[in-house]
UniProtKB/TrEMBL annotation:
Protein name from the UniProt record: Sensory transduction protein RegX3
Boundaries of every Response regulatory domain copy: 2-117
Claim: GTP-binding is one of the keywords in the record: no
A single cellular component GO annotation: protein-DNA complex
Molecular function terms, GO-annotated: phosphorelay response regulator activity; transcription cis-regulatory region binding
Sequence ranges assigned to domain OmpR/PhoB-type in this UniProt record: 130-225
Annotated organism of origin: Streptomyces corchorusii
UniProt GO BP: regulation of DNA-templated transcription
Annotated CDD domains: trans_reg_C
Pfam families tied to this protein: Response_reg, Trans_reg_C
Domain of life of the source: Bacteria
Length: 228
């Protein structure tokens, strides 16, 4: 697998690159946000994962993450010393797939890289015969992964789209939290529960339809199809 390592400290990058190479990764090192963005042209440039350190010299790491997500669906793992929940949620809202806090165990980092790779390989939970789902003013284009409301395109992250598409396949049916996490995040990691809540809140806000996704207390969520 090709991996883009975004790290401004050459000593840290060299040591980590050596470890990753021993585990079969082909590592490209970018020392700044701009180098990283250039390396991902065109369309992710074949990288399987981006390992993004947030302490960059030219741009804020969160800003770089947002720009990466606009250019490519390549999985992004943020690496930072910021361990507070608000920082993690902010990173996930920008489209990061995972978040590793320094100092980290190398084995954990490798496990997380493989985990996001597996989830991306099986990323499409919307295996239905129709090319689009219509829910009142909401149109979900499955092949292009595009969502629009009353004809206006709404920009969603990869996980936001997957979550919406999953719920939209069976309007009115309650999806258990565990089921959603398993199908969208391809994991049973209990910490993903907070991530699910954040993604639901973000969908409600972006679609400007807070009643579209209903919380079934103690169980999970269901999509309430709006009137046409």
């Amino acid at each position: 697998m090709r991996l883009l390592l975004v790290e401004d400290d050459n000593h840290v990058a060299a040591a980590l690159s050596a470890v990753l190479a021993k585990h079969g990764f082909q590592v490209t090192h970018a020392r700044s946000g701009e180098e990283a963005l250039q390396a991902l042209v065109p369309e992710g440039n074949g990288f399987g994962v981006v390992l993004l350190d947030l302490g960059l010299p030219d741009q804020d790491g969160y800003e770089v993450c947002g720009k990466i997500r606009k250019r490519t669906s390549t999985p992004v793992i943020m690496v930072t010393a910021r361990s507070d929940v608000r920082s993690r949620i902010h990173g996930l809202n920008l489209g990061a797939d995972d978040y590793v806090v320094k100092p980290y165990d190398t084995g954990e980092l490798l496990a997380r890289i493989h985990a996001v790779s597996r989830r991306t390989a099986h990323e499409d939970p919307t295996t239905v015969g129709e090319s689009a789902l219509l829910l009142g003013p909401v149109r979900i284009e499955l092949p292009t992964r595009q969502v629009s409301v009353d004809g206006s395109v709404v920009q969603l992250t990869r996980k936001e789209f997957d979550l919406l598409a999953l719920l939209a396949q069976r309007p009115g049916v309650v999806f258990r939290r565990e089921q959603i996490i398993s199908e969208v995040w391809r994991t049973s990691w209990e910490g993903t529960g907070r991530t699910l809540e954040v993604h639901v809140a973000s969908l409600r806000a972006k679609l400007r339809m807070p009643a579209l996704i209903e919380t079934v207390r103690g169980v999970g969520y269901r999509l309430v199809a709006p009137a046409a």
